[in-house]
From TrEMBL:
<dbReference type="InterPro" id="IPR000683">
    <property type="entry name" value="Gfo/Idh/MocA-like_OxRdtase_N"/>
</dbReference>
<dbReference type="GO" id="GO:0000166">
    <property type="term" value="F:nucleotide binding"/>
</dbReference>
<dbReference type="InterPro" id="IPR051450">
    <property type="entry name" value="Gfo/Idh/MocA_Oxidoreductases"/>
</dbReference>
<protein>
    <submittedName>
        <fullName>Myo-inositol 2-dehydrogenase 1</fullName>
    </submittedName>
</protein>
<feature type="domain" description="Gfo/Idh/MocA-like oxidoreductase N-terminal">
    <location>
        <begin position="1"/>
        <end position="118"/>
    </location>
</feature>
<dbReference type="Pfam" id="PF22725">
    <property type="entry name" value="GFO_IDH_MocA_C3"/>
</dbReference>
<dbReference type="Pfam" id="PF01408">
    <property type="entry name" value="GFO_IDH_MocA"/>
</dbReference>
<dbReference type="InterPro" id="IPR036291">
    <property type="entry name" value="NAD(P)-bd_dom_sf"/>
</dbReference>
<dbReference type="InterPro" id="IPR055170">
    <property type="entry name" value="GFO_IDH_MocA-like_dom"/>
</dbReference>
<feature type="domain" description="GFO/IDH/MocA-like oxidoreductase">
    <location>
        <begin position="127"/>
        <end position="246"/>
    </location>
</feature>
């Protein structure tokens, strides 16, 4: 499979490395606005540099396209993918606005090719294990859920994430993962209330804290932070039910522990090591080759954006919002 990549930054590099490791595809072409960055990227992967994005979408020799650019450009590239009828994988957040989410959802209804959203959390072993435990009822009736996702401050003034109109800040960058996780594992969100640090126009230390009431009756606490020490990145969860507690923290070893309410014993479990990026690519290629839906269809990514925008609205209005 010959794959074209739109973008040449960190996420594009993760995707390209996964393509190389897979042995099932190759990076055929790349397009990015930064000419120096794209030249280095193309040289590293033996790819052709396209003069513009349309050149990649219109190339009949390219079977699929991965969109890994800043969020505001996603909608336009998805339109090009639809026009060219290409298999496409778009990084999260899939779009930036509610209007774009509605437009792209309508555009891709009945799409004959594979259209997938890049939500790596759904391919991360510890989160897949959490979903399995919940589906099997091992924790009983879930009462509380704590989800954390955090990284170091964004100090580079040229970082596009620091423009809230482009990135949506920490809510659309990080919290969007855990909002999607909530619905995937625990079901619909009923109401959400979000507080956000007063950054006075400086997003580099953005921080948001959300309380969500689920339709099941469970309460979820979501923390998203760009305010950690330099180079820090971690993610964690704690889920408490009537039969026990499941805890995970990427900083600890073992990362995953379960506390049973019946025998009071703590048992460590480390899931099989599997790169989420590799698993996501394999799923995308399998969907193309077998003519089956991807694990994370584009519509799932669009729904995650809608939830994140509701969370952002709550933070801006300082009011709880009913979801739906």
């Amino acid at each position: 499979m010959r794959i074209g990549i739109i973008g040449a930054g960190n996420m594009a590099t993760l995707h390209a490395d996964a393509i190389v490791r897979s042995g099932r595809a190759q990076v055929a072409a790349v397009y990015a606005i930064d000419t120096q960055q794209v030249a280095t990227f193309a040289s590293r992967y033996g790819a052709r540099v396209a003069n513009d994005a349309r050149e990649i979408f219109e190339d009949s020799a390219i079977g699929a396209v991965i969109i890994a650019t800043p969020t505001p450009s996603h909608a336009e590239y998805l339109r090009l993918a639809h026009k060219a009828q290409k298999h496409v994988l778009c990084e999260k957040p899939v779009v930036r606005t509610r209007a774009e989410a509605d437009e792209i959802a309508a555009l891709f209804t009945g799409y004959p090719c594979v259209a997938a959203a890049g939500h790596l959390v759904r391919f991360t072993p510890e989160y897949k294990y959490l979903r399995q435990v919940i589906r099997e009822g091992k924790l009983g009736q879930v009462g509380t859920i704590r989800l954390t996702r955090a990284c170091g401050a964004r100090k580079d003034p040229s970082d596009w994430h620091l423009d809230e109109s482009a990135s949506g800040g920490v809510i659309l960058d990080l919290m969007v993962h855990d909002l999607d996780l909530l619905t995937w594992v625990f079901g619909p969100i009923q109401t959400i209330y979000v507080q956000r640090a007063d950054h006075q126009g400086d997003l580099c230390h953005d921080y948001a804290l959300a309380i969500a009431k689920l339709s099941s009756g469970a309460l979820a606490h979501l923390e998203a932070s760009w305010a950690e020490p330099p180079g820090e990145f971690y993610y964690a969860y704690e889920v408490a039910g009537s039969l026990g507690i499941l805890e995970f923290d990427s900083r600890k070893e073992p990362t995953l522990v379960c506390v049973s309410r019946t025998d009071k014993q703590r048992v460590g479990r480390t899931p099989e090591v599997c790169s989420p990026v590799d698993a996501q690519l394999a799923d995308f290629l399998d969907a193309i080759e077998k003519g089956q839906p991807p694990t994370v269809p584009l519509e799932v990514g669009l729904n995650a954006v809608r939830l994140a925008l509701v969370a952002l609205e709550s933070a801006q209005s300082n009011q709880p919002i009913v979801v739906g």
